[in-house]
Amino acid sequence: MKFKTSLMAVIALGVMAIAGQASAGPSCGMNTGQAATGKPIVIGGIYGNGAPGDWSSSTDSAAAYFACVNANGGINGRPIEYHVENDEWNPEAAARAAAKLVNDDKAVALVGNGSFIEMAVNAKTYADAGIMSMASACAISECFESSNIVSTNQGPLPSNLGAAQYAQEELGAKNVACIGLNIPDNGIWSCQAVIDFMTKRGGTGSMAMLNPGAPDVNSALLEAVSSGADTILMNLPAGLALAVLKAAQEQDLRDAYNWIAPTPLYDLSVPAAIGDYWNGKVYVNAELAPISVNGPDAQNWIAVLDAFGKPDDPRDTFGQAGYLSAEFFVKAALAMNPEDLDDRAKVTEAIKGIVGYRSDLMCGPYYVGDADFHMPNHAGYMVQIIDGGFKIVRDCYEFDSDYFNRHIELEKKLGLR
Amino acid sequence: MSKRALVNWLIYVVLMGGVLAWLGWGKPLAVQGLFITAGLAVGSLYALGGIGMVVLYRASGVLNFSSGAAGAAGAFSAWQVVQWGWPAPVSWSVCILVALVLTLIYGRFIAPHLAWRETVVKAVATLGFALIILGMVTFLWIDDPRSMDLPTDGVSVTILGLKVTGTRLLAFAASLLISLGIFIFLGRTQIGLQMRAVANDRDLSALLGVPILKVETIAWGISGVLAGFSGLMFANLIRLEPVVITFMVIPSIAAALAGRLDRLALVLVGGLSMGVIESMLTLSPLLKGVRPIAPFVIAALVLLYYQRGARLTFGGRD
Amino acid sequence: MDRNLFHVTPRGWAGLGLAAFCFAVLPAVVGSYWLSILTSAACFTMAASGVAFMYARLGMVSLTQVGLMGIGGWVALRLNYAFAFPFEVNLVLAALATMICGWVLALPALRMRGLYLALVTLMAAGGLEIIFSTFQFPNGGSGFWGVKIGSADPFRGPALAPGPAAYLRYVVVMVTLGFLFIEGHRRLFPGRAWALIRRSEAAAMAAGVNVTLYKTWAFGIAGLLAGASGTLLAGSLGLLDDGTFRSPESIMIFALSVVGGAQYWLGAVVAAVLYRVLPGLLNQWGVNADLAFVIFGAGLLHAVITAPDGIAGQIWGGIGRLMSRRKGGAE
Predict the structure, then answer these.
(1) What is the CA radius of gyration of chain C?
(2) Could you tell me which chain B residue has the CA closest to the CA of A251?
(3) pTM (2 decimals)?
(4) What is the pLDDT of residues B205-218, one digit of tens each?
(5) How many domains does chain A have?
(6) Residues A91, A172: one domain?
(7) Short-list C29, C239, C244, C33, CA closest to C141
(8) Beta carbons within 8 Å of A54's beta carbon, 6+ residues apart
(9) CB contact C116 to B (< 8 Å)
(10) Does residue A386 lie in a domain region?
């Protein structure tokens, strides 16, 4: 895999610069400037907005991109009708959302899904219906180990590995304690991979599991501390990770450990929320290009959101992932015969045929392929939280783990390596 | 103190000591201290929630499931006020004020419509109010990582080689002082006397001329202030997330049950013990996964212990 | 023995009519979205009927019903992955296992009543919530808990009901059987014992009714129905998630049963409709999920305040008045 090192040049341009470039106008699909008027193509999307959190930024960005495509000639003249459903973090709601989109609305593909639960409930539904889901914000193993789901984001496992690898190589980590959620297909799945990685590199690791129903993170932190670790990996949603940092601040544990985290902490509100105490001490793995890289796709994403999104649509990693999924889908659909766009089987075939799409937002190429597992994105950046923002400390790097052997195998077969 | 109460306290001390010794066996004292301090802070919050609940329940017969939600609304308002650049003390007053107003709205305008229903129905109806508040809070403040800082976070004292922040001390001291204050208030003041009268027999007190409405309003007010204060502490010590703060009421009910919805001192001791045992369970390799279950198990055991030998009483009140 | 055992009242006919409608017409006319919603609503109808029955017949409040559903679902999933039993066998075994859990829960009930009893059951619900979120639901792994890392193995649904429409019919039949089971009890000796206990425990004891036995029995029935409904829910989704079985949900299903009208069969249906169909409708109308919560909470409060007999009571009352007016007009 070749990495785009040239993008490193543009660092810390800031939001002002991005906003300035937004006025250049977004670029979408066929770029005709003419609204599409043909027969609509139905695409579905499922997000989770409910009690534990709001994961709608990926479908928000995808919706904005599709609106932009529709205003620019659509898919060879045919507009996209994007149907979005909320799974409310509830398996029943997730099942009914998929039933509606797949069976009632007759969507030909799903794009931009962001959820903690939908993929586990619906993986079989998608496989049975022969529909592809180009997800964007996935956190559980089903997203990456199913035949009909491919996600643009990495999920916790690669991002954890990336953070642990950086800590092992650069920060001298020998014993990593992974604090994760006690959910088999999320926390345990992704923390175990870190322990395996550390063992392979001659170190050790342990996991301290946090019950999702437990209010207090302090006990889990103390458990991690008492494991004898030198590095603490906060494999948690941002809110919980902040609580861990706060508890650690109380005990003044900052200098005794390395503090690392996967992507969820790469959120623009985090540097302000963690406060001065942690300045320069927390390292985060970013699975898509950090905002400061600001390549053409990153700028276009902001421009699309400014022109076609709602003002409060989040500008975060999952938004980027939703935008990318939508862009890749449109690219694949444009290459199809417009007549075939109502045929789910042909659309699925076209998506499975995606090989080697590139974007400055992603380190490697995007591909799908016909397999029972999909994880095109398994390389990332490492950033440091410093001076109220993020600083890139390691450019695109691939994560070293046996978990990716079969992916690399597939990439070789597809001619990507 | 009666002999029976003395025996109960003795049993408590022995059991608590036994459990702590069992969980902490072979661990260094410093590690044990770490977990006990962490547990005392959470336990104080359980106790504060439980005390607010008991004060209100005794005076009005309503077990209020919405106090957590009121606290969450207060904490988020306080966060917003800080974002607008107002000084921190204003934000604390806003927190308590919002929780107080929400609680009083329910107490004055909604609860009277249900006064004649069964206690359980009165209790579950408050869940409807909790959902309204929770829905509004999650609607107004979209999901985003937030945190709430207090000046006491920066202050710390070292007890037995262990660093304890001011906020933890504050929560602990507040739970002690508030229990004591309410105890004195109920015992020494006119309103307190009336409150106890209403708690004892509502209809009879009304006949005797106790101003029921005033007494109830004060009780709702106390419960609202406590909800706001615990919401603020919770947002700082645990997490600033609406659902988490809202459903803190369930373990608070466990603490209230430990005092049979009646005895403030027992609620305090019960809440603190629940927090400490929950935290100490982390040291048990077998039980660390299920540690949040501690309040529920303890409350159920305490209730069963109280009821031992008791038979169903015929008729009468709940 | 009892001549009235098979007598069908007008309300009974209405119930059978509704069941027939849900069986024959609904699955044929609604789309996938509503099939999915109606199936969960039907499952929760069965669970609500258990809580409502305990409350209406014995004045006992259980705030554990959704937790018990979780136990039923857990047992059914565990059996599904451990053995090759057909779905129906798992259903029966899970219901029986949950009935036993109901009996265990009844132990404190023999010494407590009213709010205390309700809160003890709430503590049980809180405990179950933690257990479910710690150990999760079986997904085909080995060991006692049956949880493996990664994706779940397939779940065997009933052979009689392939596909969502057939499954809704299947659940409707099961729910109807559940109602008939309760009604049968009410009309036989246990029903008379419960009526006596509800009136006065002292009188019941004096009349030689074994109060302990019949209270425990009622908990067992509520558990049985919860277990069956949890299994049916697992059957419709193929997996379960701890988020469904949090303790506030148990409080909610009780509150909705009161709002629906605990003494009528229609009350349980109304409760489940409010619990599952109303949010589905609000979602369909594009109401923000957070605001849907607000509407739901306000509706709950409003119904508790304005409908003391529950919504079902108002419906039957309205129909009753309509009928008598008609009769009056004809004469």
Answers:
(1) 20
(2) B163
(3) 0.88
(4) 888 888 888 888 99
(5) 2
(6) no
(7) C239
(8) A48, B142, B143
(9) yes
(10) no
